[in-house]
Design a protein that fits this description.
Elements lengths: L1 E7 L2 H13 L6 E5 L2 H9 L12 H10 L5 E8 L4 H12 L9 E6 L13
Antiparallel strand pairs: 1-3, 1-4, 2-3
């Protein structure tokens, strides 16, 4: 089995990928909202985000900002049989574009030695 992980700043596209993975047979897809540190730092440097006045460190300021802001990215996770991985990668590329290009996303696959609780659900 494999854990397929997609990280993208494209919230709408990431949700579409997650839905497509499910529709094409992934037993389950978990979606987490995310905020990338690089884009957050750029927004602070451009003055788009105001830093809190009473903080002791940049990390403390960023933690406060992240707690109070809307996440604009997404992480999609799916545990699948090995033979499904290429389909998931292809689906993500169809929706987000060439993942080798900047600003599309990062997708990686991790081998899983053991997975409990992975169940295939019947279509609704």
């Amino acid at each position: 089995m494999k854990l397929t992980v997609l990280i993208t700043a494209n919230l709408e596209g990431g949700l579409e990928v997650a839905q497509t993975w499910k529709e094409r047979g992934a037993p389950g897809v978990t979606v987490l909202r995310a905020q990338g540190i690089h884009s957050l730092q750029e927004e602070v440097e451009r003055g788009e985000i105001e830093l809190p006045r009473m903080v002791m460190s940049m990390a403390g300021a960023m933690a406060t900002i992240i707690d109070n802001m809307e996440r604009n990215g997404l992480i999609a996770l799916s545990v699948v049989e090995d033979e499904m991985v290429n389909m998931l990668v292809h689906a993500a590329s169809e929706i987000l574009g060439d993942l080798h290009q900047p600003n599309t996303g990062i997708l990686f696959v991790i081998d899983i030695a053991q997975a409990l609780g992975v169940h295939h659900h019947s279509p609704r």
